[in-house]
């Protein structure tokens, strides 16, 4: 079976950091393509040459393009991860991504306002837009039951007090449980 793992969350929750950790846990990147990379067991859509990659860093593409990239990555691996801020939706473009394979897995990450504030300042010196954060997190919490209602395994995790490795392990454990792999 082919599995699409969609990871979303606001800026600063640890999406790219967790995926970079998963990449390292799987032995690192062994092949790079223009829009995705592969490791021993997985493919990851996005640009992972920088610390903050994911699909948000792919220039000149729209959310409507991502499902085709996921399908291309399935030529290399049966489990494809895709993470980004703009995947926080129940719309047609994200549905095409979720169902690009045989089964989608949806993971929503969030964190407290203070944790995100600290991470953003440390990372880029930028301040937090609290209105956008609250709107994003309210929407994310509404999405999880919607995905579950249509049979998509959907998980939500508060990353406020977790290490990057703990977030990566949480995601990997959920994927392995759903995909029934070791």
Would you give an account of this structure?
The chain is an alpha/beta fold and 182 residues long. The chain is 41% helix and 18% strand. The protein has 6 helices and 7 strands, in the order βαβββαβαβααβα. Strand 4 (43-45), helix 2 and strand 5 (79-83) form a beta-alpha-beta unit. The longest helix is centred in the C-terminal third of the chain and has 20 residues, at 130-149. It is globular, with a radius of gyration of 15 Å. The chain starts with a strand and ends with a helix.
- Count the beta strands: 7
Structural class by helix and strand composition: alpha/beta
Largest sheet: 7 strands, mixed
Major β-sheet strand ordering: 2-3-4-5-1-6-7
Low-confidence stretches: none
Estimate the global geometry from the Cα principal axes.
globular
Helical fraction equals 40-55%
Q: How confident overall, as mean pLDDT?
A: 91
Question: What is the tally of helical segments?
Answer: 6
Secondary-structure element series: EHEEEHEHEHHEH
Question: End-to-end span in angstroms?
Answer: 15 Å
Kindly provide the radius of gyration, computed on alpha-carbon positions and rounded to a whole number of angstroms.
Answer: 15 Å
> Per DSSP, what share of the residues sits in E-state strands of 2 or more residues?
15-25%
Keywords:
182 residues, alpha/beta, 7-stranded mixed β-sheet, 6 helices, 41% helix, 18% strand, globular
